Amino acid sequence: AQTVTQSQPEMSVQEAETVTLSCTYDTSESDYYLFWYKQPPSRQMILVIRQEAYKQQNATENRFSVNFQKAAKSFSLKISDSQLGDAAMYFCAYRGGYSGGGADGLTFGKGTHLIIQP
Amino acid sequence: DAGVTQSPTHLIKTRGQQVTLRCSPKSGHDTVSWYQQALGQGPQFIFQYYEEEERQRGNFPDRFSGHQFPNYSSELNVNALLLGDSALYLCASSLTGVGYTFGSGTRLTVV
Questions:
Q1: Do B102 and A45 touch (CB under 8 A)?
Q2: Which residues of B touch A90 (CB under 8 A)?
Q3: pLDDT 10s digit of each residue in chain B, 111 long?
Q4: Would you list which residues of chain B are within 8 Å, Cβ to Cβ, of chain A?
Q5: How many angstroms away from the CA of A44 is the closest CA of chain B?
Q6: pLDDT band at A92 (very low <50, low <70, confident <90, very high)
Q7: Would you call A108 and B103 a contact, using CB atoms and an 8 Å cutoff?
């Protein structure tokens, strides 16, 4: 079974600075997807960024970028120019690819609580 | 374009009772997945419905069952409620199975 580990229960960063959230995963599949989701107090999971395992290029979405190290099974999220609105729980998630017969459900880590200091 | 709608937003039930939670997917989506999120934890996959059938199931007992209707909306049923079933229940819809849209969840408290 796949597992996702987020080793940082809580991170704090000054507004406008850069922060990196860590995520490692374990899988025997070669085709899969990785995600970072943000969950504010409103409870709704919001997709931040997505990475396909077959793509070597790291995904980027504005101030958000990932460092995807497939061999190391590492998938960290970098938030540049942190803003107060970035404060939330951040979850790393894994989903197997169709070609590998992987389950369609997402496997989540336990999350990292990100605090933005003004 | 409405996103994923879940009802009710909050619910209090007594141990041993049964509960039904509802989810309307985002317009154009045909697949619905359900997740249980205990306090301080990440969501756990319960099951996924596609074409009115359960396509994939996580490690949850048979007390958890579901249904998908022809209009793609879905219900999650939990029988014989336990205190440990208290959690936030999230519904996510998708079209391709990759791009998920989540609802704001139903907070279930079992007393």
A1: yes
A2: none
A3: 569 999 999 999 999 999 999 999 999 899 999 999 999 999 999 999 988 999 889 999 999 999 999 999 999 999 999 999 999 999 999 886 567 899 999 999 999
A4: 31, 33, 35, 40-45, 47-48, 55-56, 58, 88, 90, 92, 97-100, 102-105, 107
A5: 4
A6: very high
A7: no
Q: How far is A22 from chain B (nearest CA, A)?
A: 15
pLDDT digits (tens, 9 = 90+) for A66-83: 999 999 999 999 999 999
Q: What strands lie across the sheet with B19-24, from one edge to the other?
A: B5-7, B19-24, B74-78, B64-68
**Tokens 């990292």 label which residue?**
A112
Task: List chain A residues with CB under 8 Å of B107.
Answer: 43
Q: Dihedral of CA B24/B27/B30/B32: which sign?
A: negative
CA distance B92 to chain A (A): 9
Neighbours of A55 (CB within 10 A): 10
Alpha helices in chain B (DSSP H): none
- Burial class of residue A112 in the structure, from the number of CB atoms within 10 Å of its CB (0-12 exposed, 13-18 middle, 19+ buried): buried
Strand-pair partners of A10: A113
DSSP string, A27-77: -S-SSEEEEEEEE-TT---EEEEEEETT--SPPEETTEEEEEETTTTEEEE
